[in-house]
Amino acid sequence: MTLALQIILVLSAVLMTVFILLHKGKGGGLSSLFGGGVQSNLSGSTVVEKNLDRVTIVMVIVWLGCIVGLNLIQAFSA
């Protein structure tokens, strides 16, 4: 169980980092490298940003859940 939570923790941390970097910031962010800046000028990217926000929030919840779960396992196993 601990190993599974650790693997999920690492994967969610990496994915969360990628999703945060893909958000459009003041300077366009990393998403402009992959053509996100061009698409946002041509069409409304509000749906894409909302979906990216939702996926990022889900990844944060999974990440926090893994941290809490690992801490509970460590606290009650001793």
Describe the structure.
With 78 residues, this protein is an all-alpha fold. The protein has a domain at 1-22 and 47-77. 77% of the residues lie in helices and 0% in strands. It has three helices and no strands. It has helices at 2-22, 36-42, 46-77. The longest helix has 32 residues, at 46-77. It is a multi-pass membrane protein. It holds the Pfam family SecG.
Mean pLDDT: 83
Ends apart, CA distance between termini: 16 Å
Count of DSSP strands? 0
Low-confidence runs = none
- DSSP strand content: under 5%
Rg from Cα? 17 Å
General form:
elongated
- The secondary-structure class comes to mainly alpha
Question: What letter string, H or E per element, gives the SSE order?
Answer: HHH
**Which percent range fits the helix content?**
over 70%
Tally of alpha and pi helices = 3
Major sheet: size, sense and barrel closure? none
Descriptive terms for the model:
78 residues; mainly alpha; 3 helices; 77% helix
Concise structural overview:
The chain has three helices and no strands.
Architecture blueprint of SSEs:
Layout lengths: L1 H21 L13 H7 L3 H32 L1
Helix pairs in contact: 1-3
InterPro entries: SecG (IPR004692)
Organism: Corynebacterium lizhenjunii
GO molecular function, one term: protein-transporting ATPase activity
